[in-house]
## 1
Amino acid sequence: MAGFKQTVSLDVQSDILDMLDAAAEKYNMPSRDKALRAVLDYVAVDGDWDVIFGKRRCLRCGGRPGWTPSQD
C-alpha cells in the first residue's frame, strides 16, 4: 500500500462502477478502488490532458447506455 490514501466520496454512474469492477477482475486487482487509482495515475503521468479533457465525451447522451463490456 504505497502512499497515504484518503477516503473520498464521488458521484459516478453505475456503469462506471461496472467498468472499474471489470478492470479490477481482468487485471487481478483487489478492488475497484485500485482500478480507479490506476486510471488516475495514468492520467497524472502519461495522459495527454488536452486529449483527455479537451474533448467532450458523453456515454449517456441520446439514449446511449453508458459503458458496456467488450465482447472479447
Note: The CA atoms of residues 57 and 66 lie 11 Å apart.
## 2
Amino acid sequence: MSGIFERLQKQMEVDTEKEGLSPLDLQDLPPLLRKIMRYMLREYELPYAEICQWAGELPEGERPNQADLDQALETLSRQFWLIKRGEGERVRYQANLRRKAASRLGQSAWNSLDAKIAASKKPRQE
C-alpha cells in the first residue's frame, strides 16, 4: 500500500515543478529580464503593446531597444517565467508563478501526534 503513496508523492513533486517559478528565483536573472519580471509581477498580465510602452518610458540608460525587449520576452516565455498567449497584435504575457508550498511545520506536528497516538495504543508492559 505504501507504493501507491510513494508514487502519488512523486507525481505531486513533478506537478509542483511544472507550476511556475518562485519570486525568490528572480535574483538569478540578468538585469533586463529581472526588471521585466518585476514589472510583470506587479501587473500580472499585460498585452505586448503595454510592455513596449513601459519599456519606452524607462530612464535612458536602462531602456532596451525593441530587438532586446523582444528577445527578453521570448527568453522569459521559453524558460516559463511568462506565459505567452495569442498571436500578432493580440499577444499577451502573464507572470507564471507556482502556488505557495505547503508548510513543513504542519506535517512535522502531525507526524509527532501520530507517533504519540501509536505509542499510547501499545500495550503497557509493567
Note: The CA atoms of residues 23 and 97 lie 8 Å apart.
## 3
Amino acid sequence: MQKEFIHTSESVTEGHPDKLADQISDAVLDAVMADDPFGRVACETYLTTGMAMVGGEISTTTYVDIPSLVRSVIKDVGYVHTSYGFSYETCAVITAIDQQSSDIAVGVDRAGAGDQGMMVGFATNETPELMPLPIQLAHTLARRLSELRKDGTLPYLRPDGKTQVSVAYHDGKPTAVETVVVSAQHDPDVTQDRIRDDIMEELVFKVIPAEFVNRERLIVHINPTGRFVLGGPVADTGLTGRKIIVDTYGGMALHGGGSFSGKDPTKVDRSGAYAARHVARNVVAAGLADTCSIQIAYAIGVQEPVSMMVDTNGTGRIPDVEITGIIEKGVDLTPAGIIERLDLRRPIYRDTAVYGHFGRSEKDFTWERDDMVDLFKRG
C-alpha cells in the first residue's frame, strides 16, 4: 500500500433500505437459532414501495411467523408513519420459502463447508478497535445519527441516513480527517440551515476526534443535494447483502465477495469471514504485525480450507510464512471448529446487521475477543 493517500469509507443507518433488509434477514435467522440451533437458513429480503418480500431456503424444526417478525423489525427501526411512504402497518409482506437443497445438505451434514468461496479477515492497530479509522468513524457517525433521532435530540430526523469519512494518511498512518459527508433524512418543514447547525454541533464535532480535525481545512457536506425528505424503501429498493464493504473494512482490505446477513453459520461466507477476522485481530493484538490480512478459501462439502494466505503488508515482526504456520498448527478452521470456538449457534445476528460486523467489542461478538494472543506470542 502506498504511504501517502486519502482513504474514504461509508456507513449507513439502520433505516437505510439495504440495512433494513439485512436486519429482517438476520431477525429471521435469530428466530430459528433461538429454538433450533442446528437449523439451516439462507434468507434474503427485498424491500420496495409498500412491500417487503422474504425468500430463501430454510430447513428447521421450529416455526417462525415471518410476516409478524418483518413488521416488528420495520417498526423498531422507525418506519411507523404512513407519511414516510413506508410503514410497518400498511406494507405488504410476501414470503417465498423453500427447504435447503438436498445436494447442499449432504455436504453440510458431514461437517463440510456450506459453500465454496474465499473469505478475508483484517485488523490494524490504528484504532483501539483494531479497525481502519475511516470505517470506524463512519460507523460511529451513523450510529450517533440514529441515536439523535431516537432519543429526541433531533426529532425532525427520519430513519434513513448515510455517512462518509475521508482520512489522510502519511507514512501509512492516519493523520487528519479531510472530508465528512452526512445525508440525514428529515421532515419536510425543517430548514437545511438548522439541520447543518445541529449536525455539526451534535454529531460531527462530537464524534470526530479533535486530534484529527483542522477546522479551517475540514470539509463537511450535509445533505449535499439540499433536501432529503423522501427516503427508505419508497425512494430506493433494499436488498440483503448489498452493503458488504460497509459490513467489513470500508474498502481498506480485500473482500471475498460473499455477504453475511440471513445465513446460518454453516455458510462459510459468514463463519469463515468471522474466523478470519478473529485470527487477524489476534495476530495484531499479539504484536506480531501492525496490519494483518488473512484470506481463507473453502470447497463446498469439504471440511478443511483449500488455502490460506497471510499478508502483513511489510509490518510483520516475523515472516508471514511463520504466522501462517502458527495458524495452521494452532487454529481449527474447519466449519465445525469455527462454529464451536466462536459459539455461533446463537441468536446474535440481528445486532451484526447494522454498523458493521467487526470492531464492536461492546457486543458479545466472540470473533472480537483477543483470546488467542498467547498462541501467537508463543509462536
Note: The CA atoms of residues 132 and 178 lie 15 Å apart.
